[in-house]
C-alpha cells in the first residue's frame, strides 16, 4: 500500500482486512461474518448479495460503524476506522426503512448532516437544493415525511445521505419497501444518480435482479462469507459455487464424469448420443467428476435430434409446460440426473414447441456449460 | 426546665432505644438499612415536659425575643370575615404584617400534622394558632409544644377578658393560652319538622325521630352527651361512667335513631333535611339562620350542654412570638372583639363587646341593624350567668393511658 | 467505541427516578413495617419492641371495617364490569368515527377534582335534594327514605369514581379485536350470542382483568366516598387508617392496619391473577 | 387520558347487520345514559357556581348570578390553596416527567440486568393503595423528623407519578425505529445531539402526555396530600376542610374553570396529535 493522504485516489474507497464478527446468542457463538477480505474501488457500484442472514447487512453495518468487528480492520480511503464511531466516519447510509426523522421536513432531513458538520447556512441551502434537484424532490422541501409517498421518502433518504458527499454511500435494501414498478424505476434512477455524483455505492440486497442490473461488481455472500466476487456477467455466466448458481437466476446442474478430453473441451457422456461438452482447463483429466451449470435460456428444445456435432445433447420427456408471457418454461425429465428447466423465448413461435409427455431433445453450445468449483 | 425532671434515668428509659438482639433476629428478613431505621423509632417529645412550667420559664422564653414585623397565623376555615378587617386594622396600627391561613380543620389532624416538626424543634410555619381545649390541647401542653405566655404583654386581655376564663380546667391561669372564642354544644332542631319544643337531651333518644338524629363523631363531644344524658358531669366522670355512657349511646345507635355521626358537616345535614335534630355548636346555627334565612332552633338541654373554647396559643418554635402575642392582645380590644363576634357569632370572651355591638348596630339600619341587634342580644354570643350554670367542661384526662382507654370505649360507636 | 458507556447508559437513566422510588416508596414501606412493630404513644415517643400483638388487636378490633371494605371493593368491581362492558362494547364496535368523541365524553367528568365530584353527588342525593325531594313531595317515596349514608350510596360513589378505569381497559381490548375474526366466527356457523361468547368475550378478558386490577385495590382502600356519601354504618378500613394516623396519631396501629390491608389486597390480586392463569400481571397492568 | 384521544380514527363496524338494528340501538341509548350519569355531578357543580346564594352556604338554588365569577379570587386562602396546587402540579409534571422519561426510555431502549426489579417497583407504585403510600411516607417523614409541607407533597406526588410517565414513555420508545437514531449518528450527530435533536422530539408527544398525566394526578390528588401536607393546604384539601361548613360558590367557579381548562388542553392536544393523511 502506498503512503498518501486521504485524497489519494490510489486507495480503495473501502477495504476490509480479515474482518470477522461473532455474536453471542443464547450462549452460543454465531459467526455472522467470517474472516472477510474485501476491497471496493473508488466510484464503484458494489453490491453485497445474499439471502437474509448471510451477513451482508452486518458487513455493511461494520463499514458504517454501527457494529464493531470482533477482529480485523476496516479501512476507509486507506485510513483505519475500525474503532471510529459512525458519526465520525465519512460514509453515509440509506436505511431499509429510510429512517427519516418524522418530526423534520424533507429539507430539514437533508440539511441535518451538513448542520452537524457546521457547514454555513448559505452553503447548506445551496447544496441541499442541488441534491434535491438531482433526486427530483424540488418543491417538496416543506413536506413532512408522513406526507410523502414511499418513493419520495426514498429519495429524501438518498438525498440526506448524498448531500454530505460521503466517501461511500451504503444502501441497505433501499428499494425493498417499494412496489415492483417503482422499484424498477428507482433502479435506473439510482444508477443515474451514482454516475452523476460519482460516489462509491455499496448496495446490500437479496434481490439478484437488482444487483445484476445496477452493480459494477457483486459479492455473493452465504453463511458469513463471500462465495463469489465478480462482475454481474461473471457471476451469472460463471457461477463459482453451487450456491451461487442456484441463487442467481435459475440454473440446471448436472453431475457427470469426464469421458474424454479434446483440447480444452471435456465430454461427459450420459448414454447413446447424449453428451455434455464442457470447456475446462488443462488440469482436468479423464475420470474426473464434474458439476456443470447450464442456464435455462441457453438450451434449445426440439422434437427432433439436433444435427450439429459440437453441441451438448440430452433427451428427455416434457413433464410440465408453463406459459410466462415473454417465454414458455418447460420442465424436462432426462436421464442425466435432475429435471432440467428450459426457457424458450416466445419471439417467433406462437405455439408451444412440445406438450407434456412428448419426447424432446435438448441442445446447447459448449461455452454455455460451466463447470462449478474448478 | 431541667430542674423539674423527676429522675434522669427514667427519662432515659422512656426515650432510649429498646432494640435488643432477639428483636433484631425477629426482623432479620429486613435489610440492614431497614434495621437502622427500625432502631430509630419515633422520637418522643413529651414526658419530659411538666404540665406546669418552671417559674422562670416565661422569662427564659421571652428573653431576647424581638419583633420581626410579621406574624403567621393559623386558624380554622370561615372563622373570620374573609376580608380580614381586624387583621388589616392590626397591620395599619402596628406595621406588623399578618399571614392568615385557614389551615386547621380538626384538632386531631392538626396535632398529627405539626407534631413531627415541633418534635424536631422546627418551626411549623406559624407563630399563632387557634386550638380547642380537649385531648390534643393536653398533648400540646404535655409535649411542651406551647410557649408560656407573658401576661405583661397582654394588657387588653387583663382589662377586658371575662375573668372566668382564667379558671378553666385545661389551662388554669392561662399559662399557655387565651381564648379566641367559645362555643356551646347543645341541640339544634328544625321546628318545621319537629313541632313540639325540644328541651331535653333525651329527646335525642325519642323514637319519633328515628333515623333523623345527628350526633358528633368527635368522641369527646359524643361521650359528653352520653354522660349528661345519664346525669353525669363529664368533667368529673370516671372510666366506669364512660362505659355506662357508651352503653347509652349504643342503645341509641342500635335503635336506629342516629342518621350519622358528623363532624362540622352536621350543619349541612340539618340544612338539607338529612337530620331534624342534632348535636350542634351554637355559632353555626346562628350563622346558618342569618345567612340562609332558616329558622333552626338551638337549645341548651335541661341536663346541660358543654362549653368548649378555641384558644390562641403560640407554638414553642414560633419565629415571631412577640408579634404573635401582640396580635393576641389586639383581639382583646373591645372594638375588635366586637367586630369579630359580629361576623362569627360565637361566644365572645370580651363581655364589653356586647355594648360595642349595640353601638355598631345603632349606626346601621334595616335588616342589617336587626341582624346586628340580634347578635348583641343573643345568649349564644353573650350567655347569661344562668346559661353558664348549665354548661359543663370536657372530660379531663390525667394520663395518656386514660385518654387511650376513653378513646377505645367510644371510638367503636362512631366507626362501626 | 464507548462500549462501557453503552452498558452504563440504562443505569444512568434509571438512577434518578429509581433512587426517588427507592427513597420515597420502598424505604417508607420498610419504615411503616418497622413502626407497626413499635410501641409507645405520640407524646412519649415510640420504640421498637417487635410487638406483633398490635396486628392481632388491630385486625380483631377493626375486622368489621376490613371485611366491609373488601366486600364493597368486590361489589364495586362486579358492578363496574356490568356497567362498563356494554359501554366499551358499543363504543368499540359501533362508535365508528366518533369513538374518540365518546371516550372523551366518558372522561369529561374526570377533569373535575375527585373530591369535588364526590361532594357534588352529596348535593344530588341528599334527602330533600334535587333527586329525592320531588319524589318525596309527589308522595312516591316515604318522607324518611334516604340514600345518603347507606351502602348503596357508597358503592354508587365508588362505581362512579372508578368507571373510567374499567371502561378504558375493556375498550382497548375490544378495539383490538379484528372484526374479520368475528365475521369468520359467523361464517363458521356461530350465531351472534355464540360468536360473542366464544370469540369476543375471551378476547376481551385481558381487558376485564386489567380493569379489575385497576379498580379493586383503590375501591377497597378508598375512604373519601364513604366519608362523603356514607355514614358510621358504612365505615371503611381506609377511614379507620386515616383516622388512626391523622386524628389519633396512633402510628403503630395505623401502620399495622395499612400493612394488613396491603397484604390482603396484594394476596387477593395475585391469587386472582393465578386463578385467571394470567402469568404476566405486570404487562396487563402496565397497559 | 390524552393517550386515548390519540387513538386513530378507524371506521370499523364489526357486528353483523341484524344485531346492529336491535342490540346496537339499545346499547347506544345505554351508553348515553351512562354518559349522562357521569356528567350529572359536573353539571350540578357548574350550575351552583351561578347560584345567587346570599350567605356562605351554597346548597339550595336561589337564582342566577354571575357575581361569583367576578369574585373568584375573593377568598385568599382558597386562592392560595389553588396556587399551591398548581405549583405542586407543575413541579410534579416537570420532575416526574424528567425522571419518568429516563426510566421509560431505559426500559424501552435497553435490555439490562435489573430491569425486572425496576418493573416490579413501578408496578407496585401503581397498584399500591394511595392510602398506604401516603401513610408510609408520613411514617418516613415522622421517623426522620422532617416537617411536612409543600415540599413533602411534591416529593410524594412525584413518587406516584414517575411510574405513569415511565409507562407512557416506554410504550412510545418500544415502537421507536432504532434506525432513525442510527441515521442521525450516520449523519454525524453524536449521542447527545442524537438524543436531543432526534429521539427526544420523536418521543416528545409521549413525554408530554406523561407530564400532563402527572399534572392531572397531582392536581386532583387528595389522599396522599392529606398525609403529607402538614400545615400546607392544596385545592382539594381546602375543599375537604371547607365542605363541613358548606362550600362557598368560589369553589364551584374554580372547579368549573379547572374543568374547562382541562377540557381545552385535551381538545387542543387531540387535534394537534391527530395524524395527517399521507400524500400517497
UniProtKB/TrEMBL annotation, chain A:
It catalyses: ATP + H2O + polyamine-[polyamine-binding protein]Side 1 = ADP + phosphate + polyamineSide 2 + [polyamine-binding protein]Side 1. GO terms for molecular function: ABC-type putrescine transporter activity; ATP binding; ATP hydrolysis activity. Its EC number is 7.6.2.11. Keywords: ATP-binding, Cell membrane, Membrane, Nucleotide-binding, Translocase, Transport. The keyword Transport applies. GO terms for cellular component: ATP-binding cassette (ABC) transporter complex. Residues 14-248 form the ABC transporter domain. InterPro entries: AAA+_ATPase, ABC_SmlMolc_Importer, ABC_transporter-like_ATP-bd, ABC_transporter-like_CS, Mo/tungstate-bd_C_term_dom, P-loop_NTPase, PotA-like, PotA_ATP-bd. Gene3D superfamilies: 2.40.50.100, P-loop containing nucleotide triphosphate hydrolases. It comes from the Bacteria. It is an enzyme of class 7 (translocase). The complex is composed of two ATP-binding proteins (PotA), two transmembrane proteins (PotB and PotC) and a solute-binding protein (PotD). PANTHER family: SPERMIDINE/PUTRESCINE IMPORT ATP-BINDING PROTEIN POTA, SPERMIDINE_PUTRESCINE IMPORT ATP-BINDING PROTEIN POTA. Part of the ABC transporter complex PotABCD involved in spermidine/putrescine import. Responsible for energy coupling to the transport system. Belongs to the ABC transporter superfamily. Spermidine/putrescine importer (TC 3.A.1.11.1) family. This is Spermidine/putrescine import ATP-binding protein PotA. It comes from Actinoplanes nipponensis. The lineage of its organism: Bacteria, Bacillati, Actinomycetota, Actinomycetes, Micromonosporales.
Automatic annotation (TrEMBL), chain B:
One of its GO terms (cellular component) is periplasmic space. GO terms for molecular function: polyamine binding. Gene3D superfamilies: Periplasmic binding protein-like II. One of its GO terms (biological process) is polyamine transport. The keyword Transport applies. PROSITE patterns: TAT. It is found in: Periplasm. Keywords: Periplasm, Signal, Transport. This is Twin-arginine translocation pathway signal protein.
UniProtKB/TrEMBL annotation, chain D:
It is found in: Cell membrane. Its main location: membrane. The chain crosses the membrane at residues 27-50, 82-108, 120-142, 148-169, 198-219, 253-271. GO terms for cellular component: plasma membrane. Belongs to the binding-protein-dependent transport system permease family. CysTW subfamily. The lineage of its organism: Bacteria, Bacillati, Actinomycetota, Actinomycetes, Micromonosporales. InterPro entries: Bact_Polyamine_Transport, MetI-like, MetI-like_sf. This is ABC transporter permease. It comes from Actinoplanes nipponensis. Residues 82-269 form the ABC transmembrane type-1 domain. GO terms for biological process: transmembrane transport. It comes from the Bacteria. It holds the Pfam family BPD_transp_1. Keywords: Cell membrane, Membrane, Transmembrane, Transmembrane helix, Transport. It is a multi-pass membrane protein. SUPFAM superfamilies: MetI-like.
Amino acid at each position: 500500500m502506498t503512503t498518501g493522504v486521504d485524497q489519494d485516489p490510489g486507495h480503495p474507497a473501502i477495504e476490509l482486512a480479515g474482518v470477522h464478527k461473532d455474536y453471542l446468542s443464547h450462549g452460543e457463538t454465531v459467526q455472522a461474518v467470517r474472516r472477510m477480505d474485501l476491497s471496493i474501488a473508488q466510484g464503484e457500484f458494489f453490491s453485497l448479495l445474499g439471502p437474509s442472514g448471510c451477513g451482508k447487512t452486518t458487513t455493511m453495518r461494520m463499514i458504517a460503524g454501527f457494529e464493531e468487528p470482533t477482529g480485523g480492520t476496516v479501512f476507509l480511503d486507506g485510513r483505519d476506522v475500525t474503532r471510529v464511531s459512525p458519526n465520525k466516519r465519512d460514509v453515509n447510509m440509506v436505511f431499509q426503512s429510510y429512517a427519516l426523522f418524522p418530526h423534520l421536513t424533507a429539507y430539514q432531513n437533508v440539511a441535518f448532516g451538513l448542520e452537524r458538520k457546521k457547514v454555513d447556512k448559505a452553503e447548506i441551502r445551496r447544496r441541499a437544493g442541488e441534491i434535491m434537484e438531482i433526486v427530483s424532490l424540488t418543491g417538496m422541501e416543506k413536506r413532512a415525511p408522513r406526507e410523502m409517498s414511499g418513493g419520495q421518502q426514498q429519495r429524501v433518504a438518498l438525498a440526506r445521505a448524498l448531500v454530505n458527499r460521503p466517501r461511500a454511500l451504503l444502501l441497505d435494501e433501499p428499494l425493498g419497501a417499494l412496489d415492483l414498478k417503482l422499484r424498477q424505476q428507482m433502479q435506473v434512477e439510482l444508477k443515474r444518480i451514482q454516475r452523476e455524483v460519482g460516489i462509491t455505492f455499496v448496495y446490500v440486497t437479496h434481490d439478484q435482479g437488482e444487483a445484476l442490473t445496477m452493480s459494477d461488481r457483486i459479492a455473493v455472500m452465504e453463511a458469513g462469507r463471500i462465495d463469489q466476487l465478480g462482475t454481474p456477467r461473471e457471476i451469472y455466466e460463471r457461477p463459482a459455487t453451487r450456491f451461487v448458481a442456484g441463487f442467481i437466476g435459475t440454473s440446471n446442474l448436472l453431475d457427470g464424469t469426464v469421458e474424454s478430453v479434446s483440447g480444452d473441451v471435456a465430454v461427459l457422456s450420459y448414454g447413446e448420443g447424449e453428451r455434455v461438452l464442457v470447456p475446462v482447463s488443462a488440469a482436468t483429466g479423464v475420470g474426473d467428476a464434474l458439476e456443470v451449470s447450464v442456464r435455462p435460456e441457453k438450451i434449445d428444445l426440439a422434437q427432433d435430434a439436433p444435427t450439429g456435432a459440437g453441441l451438448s445433447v440430452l433427451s428427455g420427456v416434457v413433464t410440465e409446460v408453463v406459459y410466462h408471457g415473454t417465454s414458455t418454461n418447460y420442465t424436462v425429465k432426462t436421464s442425466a440426473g435432475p429435471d432440467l428447466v428450459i426457457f424458450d423465448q416466445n419471439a417467433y413461435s406462437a405455439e408451444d414447441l412440445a406438450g407434456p409427455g412428448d419426447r424432446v431433445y435438448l441442445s446447447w453450445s459448449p461455452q454455455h456449460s460451466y463447470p462449478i468449483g474448478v | 426546665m431541667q430542674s423539674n425532671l423527676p429522675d434522669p434515668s427514667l427519662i432515659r428509659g422512656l426515650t432510649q432505644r429498646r432494640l435488643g438482639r432477639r428483636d433484631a433476629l425477629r426482623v432479620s428478613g429486613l435489610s440492614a438499612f431497614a434495621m437502622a431505621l427500625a432502631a430509630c423509632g419515633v422520637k418522643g417529645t413529651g414526658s419530659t415536659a411538666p404540665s406546669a412550667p418552671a417559674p422562670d420559664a416565661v422569662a427564659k422564653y421571652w428573653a431576647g425575643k424581638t419583633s420581626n414585623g410579621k406574624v403567621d397565623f393559623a386558624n380554622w376555615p370561615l372563622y373570620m370575615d374573609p376580608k380580614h378587617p381586624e387583621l388589616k386594622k392590626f397591620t395599619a396600627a402596628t406595621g406588623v404584617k399578618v399571614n392568615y391561613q385557614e389551615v386547621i380543620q380538626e384538632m386531631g389532624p392538626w396535632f398529627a400534622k405539626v407534631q413531627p416538626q415541633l418534635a424536631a424543634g422546627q418551626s411549623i410555619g406559624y407563630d399563632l394558632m387557634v386550638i380547642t381545649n380537649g385531648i390534643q390541647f393536653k398533648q400540646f401542653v404535655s409535649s411542651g409544644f406551647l410557649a408560656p405566655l407573658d401576661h405583661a404583654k397582654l394588657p387588653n386581655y387583663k382589662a377586658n377578658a371575662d375573668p372566668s376564663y382564667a379558671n378553666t380546667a385545661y389551662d388554669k391561669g392561662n399559662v399557655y393560652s387565651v381564648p379566641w372564642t367559645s362555643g356551646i354544644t347543645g341541640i339544634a332542631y328544625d321546628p318545621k319538622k319537629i313541632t313540639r319544643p325540644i328541651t331535653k337531651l333525651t329527646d335525642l333518644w325519642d323514637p319519633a325521630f328515628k333515623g333523623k338524629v345527628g350526633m358528633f363523631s368527635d368522641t369527646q363531644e359524643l361521650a359528653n352527651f352520653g354522660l349528661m344524658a345519664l346525669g353525669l358531669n363529664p368533667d368529673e366522670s370516671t372510666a366506669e361512667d364512660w362505659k355506662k355512657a357508651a352503653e347509652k349511646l349504643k342503645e341509641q345507635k342500635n335503635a336506629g335513631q342516629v342518621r350519622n355521626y358528623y363532624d362540622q358537616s352536621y350543619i349541612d345535614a340539618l340544612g338539607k333535611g338529612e337530620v331534624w335534630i342534632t348535636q350542634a355548636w351554637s355559632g353555626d346555627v346562628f350563622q346558618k339562620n342569618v345567612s340562609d334565612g332558616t329558622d333552626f332552633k338551638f337549645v341548651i338541654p335541661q341536663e346541660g350542654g358543654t362549653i368548649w373554647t378555641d384558644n390562641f396559643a403560640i407554638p414553642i418554635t414560633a419565629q415571631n412570638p412577640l408579634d404573635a402575642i401582640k396580635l393576641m392582645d389586639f383581639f382583646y380590644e373591645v372594638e375588635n372583639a366586637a367586630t369579630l363576634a359580629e361576623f362569627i357569632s360565637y361566644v365572645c370572651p370580651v363581655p364589653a363587646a356586647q355594648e360595642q355591638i349595640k353601638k355598631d348596630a345603632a349606626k346601621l339600619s334595616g335588616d342589617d341593624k336587626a341582624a346586628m341587634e340580634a347578635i348583641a342580644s343573643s345568649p349564644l354570643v353573650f350567655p347569661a350567668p344562668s346559661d353558664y350554670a348549665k354548661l359543663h367542661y370536657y372530660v379531663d384526662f390525667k394520663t395518656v393511658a386514660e385518654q387511650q382507654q376513653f378513646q377505645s370505649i367510644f371510638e367503636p360507636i362512631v366507626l362501626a | 467505541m464507548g462500549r462501557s458507556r453503552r452498558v452504563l447508559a440504562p443505569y444512568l437513566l434509571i438512577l434518578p427516578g429509581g433512587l426517588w422510588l427507592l427513597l420515597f416508596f420502598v424505604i417508607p414501606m420498610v419504615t411503616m413495617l418497622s413502626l407497626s412493630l413499635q410501641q409507645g404513644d405520640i407524646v412519649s415517643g415510640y420504640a421498637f419492641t417487635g410487638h406483633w400483638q398490635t396486628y392481632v388487636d388491630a385486625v380483631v378490633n377493626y375486622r368489621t371495617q376490613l371485611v366491609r371494605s373488601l366486600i364493597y371493593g368486590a361489589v364495586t368491581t362486579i358492578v363496574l364490569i356490568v356497567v362498563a362492558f356494554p359501554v366499551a362494547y358499543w363504543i368499540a364496535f359501533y362508535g365508528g368515527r366518533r369513538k374518540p368523541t365518546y371516550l372523551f365524553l366518558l372522561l369529561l367528568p374526570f377533569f373535575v377534582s375527585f373530591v369535588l365530584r364526590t361532594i357534588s353527588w352529596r348535593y344530588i342525593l341528599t334527602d330533600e335534594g334535587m333527586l329525592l325531594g320531588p319524589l318525596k313531595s309527589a308522595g312516591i317515596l316515604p318522607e324518611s327514605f334516604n340514600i345518603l349514608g347507606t351502602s348503596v350510596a357508597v358503592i354508587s360513589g365508588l362505581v362512579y369514581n372508578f368507571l373510567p378505569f374499567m371502561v378504558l381497559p375493556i375498550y382497548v381490548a375490544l378495539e383490538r379485536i379484528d372484526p374479520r375474526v368475528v365475521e369468520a366466527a359467523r361464517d363458521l356457523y356461530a350465531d351472534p350470542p355464540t360468536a360473542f361468547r366464544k370469540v369476543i368475550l375471551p378476547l376481551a378478558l385481558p381487558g376485564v382483568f386489567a380493569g379489575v386490577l385497576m379498580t379493586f385495590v383503590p375501591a377497597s382502600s378508598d375512604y373519601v366516598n364513604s366519608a362523603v356519601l356514607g355514614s358510621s354504618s358504612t365505615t371503611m378500613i381506609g377511614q379507620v387508617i386515616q383516622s388512626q394516623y391523622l386524628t389519633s396519631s396512633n402510628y403503630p396501629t395505623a401502620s399495622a392496619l395499612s400493612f394488613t390491608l396491603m397484604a390482603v389486597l396484594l394476596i387477593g390480586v395475585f391469587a386472582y391473577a393465578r386463578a385467571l392463569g394470567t402469568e404476566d400481571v405486570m404487562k396487563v397492568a402496565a397497559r | 387520558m390524552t393517550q386515548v384521544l390519540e387513538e386513530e380514527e378507524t371506521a370499523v363496524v364489526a357486528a353483523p347487520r341484524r344485531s346492529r338494528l336491535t342490540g346496537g340501538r339499545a346499547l347506544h341509548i345505554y351508553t348515553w345514559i351512562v354518559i349522562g350519569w357521569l356528567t350529572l355531578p359536573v353539571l350540578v357543580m357548574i350550575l351552583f357556581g351561578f347560584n345567587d346564594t346570599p350567605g356562605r352556604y351554597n346548597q339550595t338554588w336561589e337564582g342566577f348570578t354571575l357575581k361569583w365569577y367576578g369574585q373568584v379570587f375573593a377568598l385568599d386562602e382558597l386562592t392560595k390553596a389553588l396556587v399551591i396546587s398548581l405549583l405542586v402540579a407543575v413541579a410534579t409534571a416537570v420532575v416526574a416527567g424528567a425522571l419518568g422519561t429516563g426510566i421509560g426510555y431505559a426500559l424501552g431502549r435497553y435490555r439490562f440486568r435489573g430491569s425486572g426489579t425496576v418493573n416490579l417497583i413501578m408496578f407496585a407504585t401503581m397498584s399500591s393503595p394511595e392510602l398506604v403510600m401516603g401513610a408510609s411516607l408520613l411514617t418516613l417523614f415522622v421517623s426522620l423528623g422532617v416537617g411536612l409541607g409543600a415540599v413533602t407533597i411534591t416529593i410524594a406526588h412525584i413518587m406516584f407519578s414517575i411510574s405513569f410517565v415511565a409507562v407512557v414513555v416506554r410504550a412510545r420508545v418500544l415502537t421507536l425505529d432504532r434506525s432513525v437514531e442510527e441515521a442521525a449518528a450516520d449523519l454525524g450527530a453524536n449521542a447527545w445531539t442524537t438524543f436531543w435533536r432526534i429521539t427526544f422530539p420523536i418521543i416528545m408527544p409521549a413525554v408530554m402526555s406523561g407530564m400532563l398525566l402527572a399534572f392531572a394526578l397531582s392536581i386532583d390528588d387528595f389522599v396522599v396530600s392529606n398525609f403529607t401536607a402538614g400545615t400546607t393546604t392544596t385545592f382539594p384539601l381546602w375543599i375537604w376542610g371547607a365542605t363541613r361548613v358548606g362550600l362557598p360558590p368560589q369553589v364551584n367557579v374554580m372547579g368549573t374553570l379547572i374543568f374547562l381548562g382541562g377540557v381545552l388542553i385535551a381538545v387542543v392536544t387531540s387535534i394537534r396529535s391527530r395524524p395527517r393523511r399521507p400524500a400517497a
